[in-house]
Design a protein that fits this description.
By secondary structure, the chain is an alpha/beta fold. It has seven helices and eight strands; from the N terminus they run ββααβααβαβαβαββ. β6, α7 and β7 form a beta-alpha-beta unit.
């Protein structure tokens, strides 16, 4: 369990970009930890946009779902319209993307044109979503909960949905 298992890219939250070596144990618990706030069940589905060479894309967005029987839909690239169409098509129950991607959605799409009713929680991490953008989503009945994590330490913090 303590032997090296994977090297995850980190963009350098603590200093410079680097590869963080994860042991098998660390990888296992990284796949379990998001369920503290995700509460994945076999009925859950997520459309994953983040690259899988990042801890967030692989260990936070992807692995918790099959571990708990949920479904992961992988997209090759980010396109706001394609993301919303994939959420509608696959009836995704959870959404997680970056603040920048949420900005592109507001700038390029009419949210009312897409049936996003299957999504219950919306999450973001990586950078803070500006308050005006959170309010714009709130006007569309979309509440975004912000997460914070560091690849190097394998910790994640999630603000309660009631505080989003």
């Amino acid at each position: 369990m303590e032997s090296p298992h994977v090297i995850m890219y980190t963009s350098g939250t603590t200093e410079f970009p680097k590869g963080a070596i994860f042991t098998q144990r660390k990888t296992f618990f990284n796949a379990l930890n998001p369920n503290v706030y995700y509460h994945v069940t076999p009925e859950n589905k997520i459309v994953v946009l983040r690259p899988l060479f990042y801890s967030g894309g692989l260990l936070v967005d992807s692995l918790p779902f099959p571990y708990k029987g949920g479904t992961v839909i992988l997209k090759r690239r980010y396109n706001p319209e394609e993301l919303l169409e994939a959420i509608r098509h696959y009836r995704s129950t959870m959404a997680e993307t970056s603040a920048t991607m949420y900005r592109f959605i507001l700038d390029r799409c009419k949210l009312g044109d897409y049936d996003l009713s299957s999504v219950k929680p919306y999450y973001t991490r990586g950078e803070v979503v500006p308050l005006p953008r959170l309010k714009a989503y709130g006007e569309c009945d979309i509440i975004i909960t912000q997460l914070f994590g560091q690849t190097e330490t394998s910790t994640a913090t999630c603000s309660p949905r009631s505080m989003a």
